[in-house]
Design brief:
The chain has about 500 residues and is of the alpha/beta class. Helix content is about 25%, strand content about 20%. Strands 1, 2, 3, 7, 8, 9, 10, 20 and 21 form a nine-stranded mixed beta sheet that branches. The protein has a four-stranded antiparallel beta sheet with strand order 14-15-17-16, covered by helices on one side. Strand 2, helix 2 and strand 3 form a beta-alpha-beta unit. About 55% of the residues are buried. The N terminus is likely disordered.
Length: about 500
């Protein structure tokens, strides 16, 4: 390492010239405090996978994390990874899933924001990625858990975790369950997943530097050659000979960014993340990276717990249905947030009502021996809600839903009184949410500029990018962990090269 610069005037000038919005020129670096081949910023599942692959390729790797240990949003998740194409768990349970059907579903789930190259890459390589995860020590029991669940409470592996069997998806991609959950008892499998990946990264010789917050990127001409990190309230300068990997998460805790790009999230009150302040996105933009689909976000209110509530009917404040209720709970919730009036109602009959879990913060807004009585308690105009339920029940008895194509067995008449309307209020009920927009990257995890050209030396993956889960209305559980682990790997491979 070179010695420190002794010129106070130059130091003072240089210290004010860089931030997450403005890179530092390498010629102005006073000294290199750390030198490595690949510098990874962020120690969730994305950063760990990038480090594992970069080390496997022979590169020296330093991983900088602003917290005191690993985690990120990955550690707050259920540990579920979206994998298809014919895994051992799918085959053992009797499901046929092809790469073509799996890839088609990924593209449908991306909607208008889809990155087809990423879907095709992951579709082709998902089975190999599944094996890679096992090779790192991630355990899977291998069994199938039937039903409509958010995540297993036992150590089951395979679950339905999206809208695979619901309209319009089932018409264009043969349905199969694709959520693969780490073997772990109870909720919260994300923490043990990150623990496994952290142990592997450490075993391979990754140098971990905690309590180090990314401040700026360092450039030499058009190339990113390092980063500035703040440790003990002092800026340290990191030389990254081969590249920098951004793995810093989304921007759900940056209110200014949300107001600018994603204002609809201010209807909701329960953000999910771990210091997700958008710094990685801003760092990428500071060197010419393009941020895309910044208006997109995921949200869910866990109304499918208890599972019987999935048989209910959703209406808005005007008593109108707006979704086929058999699709993924996040798609239902995202479409609910689009409705007027700040709330929606979940309608249930006596055969399907169970007291909802307390943390969901749903309240009973109306009851009655008939749907007309429920309609009156909700103070809706006469003939609105009652007509909606008459039409729904009449067709459900025939096994069809001409309005939204809800499918049996979840399509069932709600005609066994008494009846109840649960209120899901966007501000009061538990609508958790996180952002989906971020840096535009290639299928090799290269950060791209506005012309689609890779920025030399800069790579990114996970929620600081727009990845596989690009569209809030098409999200499936496990897509974020699939995206961050797979493309985190690509970032590490490409950076090491």
């Amino acid at each position: 390492m070179t010695g420190p610069d002794k010129n106070p005037a130059r130091m003072e000038r240089m210290m004010g010239d860089y931030s997450q919005y403005r890179p530092l020129n390498a010629a102005d670096v006073p000294q290199w405090d750390f030198e490595t081949d690949v510098a990874v910023i962020g120690f969730g599942a994305t950063g760990a996978c990038a480090a594992i692959e970069a080390r496997g390729a022979g590169a020296e790797v330093m991983l900088f994390e602003r917290s005191s240990g690993s985690g990120g949003a990955s550690a707050l998740s259920g540990g579920e990874i979206y994998i298809g194409g014919g895994t051992d768990a799918q085959v053992a349970a009797g499901f046929t899933d092809t790469v073509e059907d799996f890839t088609a579903y990924l593209k449908l789930a991306g909607g208008p924001c889809v990155d087809e190259a990423k879907c095709e890459r992951y579709g082709r390589e998902a089975l190999a990625h599944y094996q890679w995860l096992k090779d790192q020590g991630v355990p899977y029991r291998g069994n199938y858990l039937p039903g409509k669940v958010i995540e297993p409470t036992d150590d089951s592996t395979l679950i339905w975790s999206g809208s695979e069997a619901a309209a319009p998806f089932y018409k264009r991609a043969r349905p199969a369950p694709r959520g693969h959950v780490i073997q772990h008892m109870g909720w919260g499998g994300g923490r043990p997943l990150v623990d496994v990946l952290e142990a592997r990264a450490r075993d391979l010789g990754t140098t971990i530097v905690p309590d180090a917050r990314a401040v700026a990127l360092i450039v030499e001409g058009p190339r990113v050659v390092g980063a500035v990190v703040r440790i003990d309230n002092r800026d340290r300068f990191v030389s990254a000979r081969k590249g920098v990997v951004l793995a810093t998460g989304g921007f759900v805790f940056n209110e200014a960014m949300r107001r600018k790009h994603c204002p609809e999230t201010f209807k909701l009150r329960d953000p999910i993340g771990d210091k997700d302040d958008g710094v990685g996105i801003e760092l990428g933009q500071s060197v010419g990276g393009e941020a895309i689909h910044m208006d997109q976000f995921f949200t869910t209110c866990p109304w499918t717990m208890p599972e019987s509530h999935a048989y209910g009917v959703f209406v808005n404040v005007m008593g109108q249905r707006f979704i086929n209720e058999d699709c993924y709970h996040g798609r239902v919730s995202r479409c609910a947030v689009d409705q007027p009036g700040g709330k929606v109602y979940l309608l249930l009959d006596n055969a399907h009502f169970v007291q909802p879990m307390d943390f969901a913060r749903m309240s009973i807004a109306g009851t009655g021996e008939t749907w007309d009585e429920v309609e009156a308690e909700l103070e809706m105009p006469a003939g609105t809600l009652a007509a909606t339920m008459d039409l729904y029940n009449r067709h459900a008895r025939e096994g069809r839903d001409p309005l939204f194509d809800k499918q049996p067995p979840i399509l069932t008449p709600l005609d066994q009184g008494p009846f109840v309307a649960l209120e899901l209020n966007f501000e009061a009920s538990y609508f958790s949410f996180f952002t989906l927009g971020g840096l535009r990257t290639s299928a090799d995890a290269e950060v791209l500029d506005h012309g689609g050209t890779p920025i030399p030396g800069l790579f990114a993956a996970g929620r600081c990018t727009s990845g596989l889960p690009a569209w809030g209305h098409g999200y499936s559980s496990g897509m974020s962990l699939a995206d961050c682990t797979f493309f985190g790997r690509q970032a590490g491979i490409k950076a090491a090269a």
